[in-house]
Design a protein that fits this description.
The structure is a single chain. The protein is mainly α. Helices cover 73% and strands 2% of the residues. The chain contains 10 helices and 2 strands, in the order H-H-H-H-H-E-E-H-H-H-H-H. The protein starts with a helix and ends in a 5-residue tail after the last helix.
C-alpha cells in the first residue's frame, strides 16, 4: 500500500503529465504535428526542458501518448452507454454517443476532434500508431456489433439484420460526426440523433390519399 508521500508524488506526476499533454495538444492544433517542435511544447507547458523530457523523451513518444490517452478516455465514456440493458433505439443512442464525444473533446484552448484528424493522418506513416488505432477501432466496432445484435433480438431493428453490417454503419456515423464537427463546426449532437430518426421510412400514404379523384 502506498503511503501519503508516495500518493502525493504520484498525483504531482500525473498533474505534470497532463500539463504537458495539454500544452502539446494546444500546439498541435495551432501548428500541426510536424511543424510543432519540442521547444514549442516546453514553452507552452511552462516547465523546464528537463522536466518535459523526463516524461516524454521525444515528440514521437508524446504524440503516441496523446493519441492513446484520448482513445482511452473516449472508451471509458462510451463503454457504459453501449453496455446498457435494454439499449435505447439507434437515434437516441447515437445522440448520446455524440454528446459524450462533444463533452470529452471540447477543451479550453483546443478541440480533440480536430486533433483526431491529425492523429488519423499521422497513423498513415507511423506503424506503431496505426496498429494501436486499428486495435482500438476494431474493438470498438466489435462492441457496436453487440449493440446491433441486441437491437435485432429485441426487435428494435430487423431480426435478420447483420450485426457486422450494423456495426460498420454505426462506426461510420460516429466518425463522420467527428469529421464534420472538426471541419464544419455546425453539427450538434442532438441533430445527429434527429437525422437518424428521420431516415426511417415515411408513413405509407393512406388509401384515401392515394385514391384518384373522379373526373
Amino acid at each position: 500500500m502506498k503511503n501519503g508521500c508516495q500518493r502525493g508524488r504520484d498525483a504531482r506526476r500525473a498533474e505534470r503529465r497532463e500539463q504537458i499533454l495539454n500544452a502539446a495538444w494546444s500546439c498541435f492544433q495551432c501548428e500541426g504535428l510536424h511543424a510543432t517542435t519540442m521547444d514549442d511544447i516546453i514553452t507552452a507547458s511552462g516547465l523546464s526542458a528537463g522536466a518535459v523530457y523526463s516524461y516524454f523523451p521525444s515528440k514521437e513518444a508524446l504524440i503516441f501518448t496523446a493519441v492513446t490517452v484520448s482513445l482511452s478516455g473516449i472508451r471509458e465514456l462510451l463503454d457504459p452507454l453501449l453496455k446498457r440493458d435494454p439499449l435505447p433505439p439507434p437515434e437516441q443512442l447515437l445522440g448520446e454517443v455524440a454528446t459524450a464525444i462533444e463533452r470529452f473533446t471540447t477543451r479550453e484552448g483546443f478541440d480533440l476532434k480536430r486533433l483526431a484528424l491529425l492523429g488519423w493522418s499521422e497513423a498513415q506513416r507511423n506503424e506503431q500508431l496505426r496498429s494501436t488505432m486499428r486495435g482500438f477501432y476494431a474493438a470498438f466496432r466489435d462492441h457496436l456489433a453487440e449493440v446491433g445484435r441486441s437491437w435485432a433480438v429485441t426487435g428494435v431493428i430487423d431480426p435478420q439484420a447483420s450485426p457486422d453490417d450494423v456495426s460498420r454503419a454505426l462506426l461510420a456515423v460516429i466518425l463522420g460526426f467527428v469529421v464534420q464537427s472538426a471541419l464544419l463546426g455546425d453539427v450538434a449532437p442532438a441533430a445527429l440523433g434527429r437525422g437518424i430518426a428521420q431516415l426511417s421510412p415515411a408513413p405509407k400514404a393512406t388509401a384515401r390519399s392515394r385514391r384518384v379523384s373522379p373526373s
